Amino acid sequence: MQIKKYVADNYSEALASIKQEMGSDALIMTTRSIRDHSEWNGGKASKVEITAAIDSATDNVETGVKVKTSETAFEVPSFSSEFEPDMKSLMYSLLSQTERAKSLGIKSPQLDLFSKLVENGLDEKIIAKVLSKISPLNDSSGALKGEFVKTMKRLIVCRGGVETSNASSPKKVVLVGPTGAGKTTTISKIAADLMYRQKKKVALISLDTFRVGGIEQLQIYGDIMGIPVETAQDRLSFEECMKRHSDKDVVLIDTMGRCHKDHSYSTQLSEVFEGLDEVETHLVLSLGSNEKQFMKSHKQFSPLGINRVLFTKIDEGLNFGSILNFSLRTRLPLSYFTTGQRVPEDIEVATQNRVIRLIFN
């Protein structure tokens, strides 16, 4: 077995050298940072060292690269260009937060702000991108934060709550999302806001005929507010409901929560809404979930044409950077936040300032 150490300025360069000399069957034995006390930030890593090995008797079959850590060994894709981002991601995850910050171009005075934002869930690469675009007059923490907030406000897109139009037919607002996100409670809060604050005529239609107690919960809220509540099981019954409420300003439509793996449900909903004009679709996500689930739900319901994202259970959230991460990745504007179970009190229109306050606690 041939064993060799590779030293480079970063992991990408070291891996490229390993690929060139040893090929795709190389075994990564160890990785470490080489500290240089004359370098950036008081002696943080300025070089990286990777120890790699290759079996001299190995054949030419592309088996992928085996990466060994101190605890276990596991398989990752080969060094081919198709899978190289995965290897880079793996190597990136092995770095300390300070080393990752340096690799992203974060300067020493920016490190405290970087760490605080990462702790509250904001994506490291988004932070680095924003910091690269600002140049405060001085490096004080206050000036840096102020410039960061100013740039963030240009990135955060909020479209306000549901507003009615002057069209002759009622506006249709659909809430979709995974099971447990809080769609039924949220739609009741929106209905109360439209009725009491905006003085609009509202009707509620539920397409959730499967969940036990779903329509009963909505009916209770409707009775309290004096708002008609109907159920529809298919396109025909939905059209009949719409005809009965053609005099309304807004029709709010509650849908069934489904597992993110069920992509057929969005197709069923598309068939129900086909041909309708002015349909506004809000994706409802709970901060009790994680970003991976957010993206799966987005993929599940995107065939419907999502217009905005609405985050629930802000009061239960532990960090809030995921709100901005998701909005930027999907380019979906924010509509509402819900902050508790009370109807109609615990709902607010999303604003840039509110997002900033959440991210900075």
Low-confidence stretches: 58-85
CATH architecture designation of the largest domain: 3-Layer(aba) Sandwich
Question: The CATH topology of the largest domain is what?
Answer: Rossmann fold
**CATH class term of the largest domain:** Alpha Beta
What's the helix-strand series? Answer: EHEHEEEHHHHHEHEHEHEHEHEHEEH
Tell me the name of the CATH homologous superfamily of the largest domain. Answer: P-loop containing nucleotide triphosphate hydrolases
Strand content: 15-25%
Could you estimate the helical fraction of the residues in percent? 25-40%
**How many DSSP helices?**
14
Specify the overall morphology.
elongated
* Rg, nearest Å: 26 Å
N- and C-termini, Cα separation? 53 Å
Q: Give the strand order of the largest sheet, numbering strands 1, 2, ... along the chain.
A: 8-7-9-6-10-11-12-13
Largest sheet: 8 strands, mixed
Q: Structural class of the helices, strands and pairings?
A: alpha/beta
What is the residue-mean pLDDT, rounded to a whole number? 79
